[in-house]
Write a structure and sequence with these properties.
Blueprint (H helix, E strand, L loop, with lengths): L3 E5 L4 H13 L2 E6 L2 H14 L5 E5 L5 H15 L3 E6 L15 H26 L7 E7 L1 H4 L5 H21 L5 E7 L6 H6 L11 H12 L9 E4 L10
Parallel strand pairs: 1-2, 1-4, 2-3, 4-5, 5-6, 6-7
Length: 244
Amino acid sequence: MKNTYIVTGAGKGVGRSFAKSVAEAGGNLALISRTSTDLESLKAELLEINTNVKISIHPTDLSDHYQTKLAFNLIESIHGKSIKAIICFAGAWIKSKPIEELETSDFLEGIQSNFFTIFNTIKEALRICSPELKGISIVTLGGTSGVWMNPEAPVMSISKGMVSHYSRILAKQLLPKEVHVAHIIIDGLIRNERGLTLKPDLREEEYIKVESIIREIHHVIEQTRDAWTFELDIRPHTRNTRLI
């Protein structure tokens, strides 16, 4: 039975909240984050929610392919072929600079932390799940800048754009194998610590709620094969969005 969710970026933010929703529903979890203390505290919280779920934690720098491979070898030894979904929350915001001040190193940092974390994750997930890929869901997350190329955030636009394009390639290649690849675009500020810090003066309804994002991810994962979504953009109704 496929009932294990691999969650990257699980230590903080939406990834952490999503892991709790899985435990509440009785799903098993393989949790990946760079920080072991975040994972340990999350595991303790999850076991308080549901003592019957199997939880493994894997402190890993997913931008490093060797580390990622070792982590997934361990996931395979613990969870076997029970993987139901891989949800890629891992990534990092790269502070923008004026275009004339950008260096090669700025783009390399953005690509490593936002694209290769996803590339390595999916590569290794497919390896340990093969050949039993049928029915697996892969969910990647991106931002508005990866679609309309925000001139004020060139590094994030390029790196998140790579995630979007790679997700589309994966969706096309894996569709005949009945693997569902979906890319979710967060078109607005999330009502969490970072969102409230960036724009503290917005009304509550102008943010996207964490629980709303989680609900939509579960919806996409549970879609029937005759009605799969590839790209889903989420926004509050109040926002003057770039995508519509």
